[in-house]
Amino acid sequence: MFAEIAADGQVKSRTVLTQLANAIERQAKVNASSGAHKRGTPTPAHPGSGPAVISGTLRRSITHTPVVSYGAGWETRVGTGAGISPPYGKTPASVYGLALETGLRNGAIYPFLGPAYRFGITVVAPQLYMSVYRVGWPRI
User: Fold this and answer.
1) Residues in CB range of 126: below 8 A, 6 or more apart
2) pLDDT tens digits in sequence order for the chain, 140 residues long
3) Do 84 and 96 meet the contact criterion of CB atoms below 8 Å apart?
4) Concatenated DSSP letters for 33-84?
């Protein structure tokens, strides 16, 4: 019975993490869309909010890796995908993903990924845990 519970727990953990990654990705895309403007015109975004959309490349580049097992747990990463460049320049969207950690470009002024992660962990994750783990567990 304990082997069944452990196997069920692994399936449920992967399910929760997959849904959480999708939720964080969706929120990051929302956060990376504070208005819109043409290249070379002033941004309607303000410091502390996400960046404004120029071409949509940054928003389209936000993705997550597949959920994979690394032994005792599961892992996925949410952020900007590599190799996606806007039509108006040579700066790939992945550089803006680095901004959250390294201070490159405008990531510190116009955050989008950090707030999405915090929303996912504090709001979405508890709801997912309750909905996925509450049902189907055998009584011992």
Assistant:
1) none
2) 888 888 888 889 999 999 999 999 999 999 888 888 888 888 888 777 788 888 888 888 888 999 999 887 899 988 887 776 666 665 666 555 544 443 445 555 667 888 899 999 999 999 999 999 887 666 66
3) no
4) -S-B--TTS--S--BTBPPPBSSSHHHHHEEEPPPEE-SSSEE--EEEPTT-
Q: How far apart are CA 139 and CA 113, in angstroms?
A: 40
- What's at 131, amino acid-wise? S
**C-alpha angle with apex 93: 62 to 41, nearest 5 degrees?**
110
Rounded to 5 degrees, what angle do the CA atoms 133, 135, 140 make? Answer: 90
Burial class (CB in 10 A: 0-12, 13-18, 19+), 96: buried
Neighbours of 35 (CB within 10 A): 13
Q: Around 110, how many Cα atoms within 13 Å sit in the side-chain half-sphere?
A: 20
Which residues have a Cβ under 8 Å from the Cβ of 129 and sit 6 or more positions away? 16
For residue 70 the two structure tokens come to: 């690394």
Structure tokens at 90: 């040579």
